[in-house]
Specification:
With about 100 residues, the chain is mostly helical. The protein has one domain. The chain has helices spanning about 5-20, 30, 50-75, 90-95; strands spanning about 25-30, 45. A two-stranded antiparallel ribbon has the order 1-2.
Length: about 100
């Protein structure tokens, strides 16, 4: 895996995880009972974004490590997803081996 690909994979995992973590333990103005005039009752009162960003960083790092191992070890390859047999068969020339 190239360095740039590893960074992009981590960034995608981080943002996807962050979007999942944001709603956890969110207290809205309606929950607290103090809705400010001109705002919606669903507006966040206590969002704890620093804590959620730290949790997201740790979770994304763990997931990135697992995916990095899977990709670099070859445990799962593109050929594992060729359900319709559209890829050409593997030949010895394709791998650079001498028969």
């Amino acid at each position: 895996m190239a360095f740039t690909s590893a960074i992009v994979l981590y960034a995608v995992l981080w943002f996807m995880t962050f979007l999942v973590v944001i709603p956890f333990r969110l207290q809205t103005q309606g929950d607290v009972g103090e809705v400010l005039e001109g705002t919606h009752a669903g507006a966040p009162e206590h969002h704890n974004l620093k804590t959620k960003a730290k949790i997201t960083t740790v979770l994304a790092a763990v997931m990135w490590g697992i995916l990095f191992w899977i990709i670099t070890s070859g445990a799962i390859s593109v050929r594992d997803f060729d359900w319709f047999d559209r890829m050409a068969p593997i030949t010895s020339e394709a791998h650079g081996t001498d028969g």
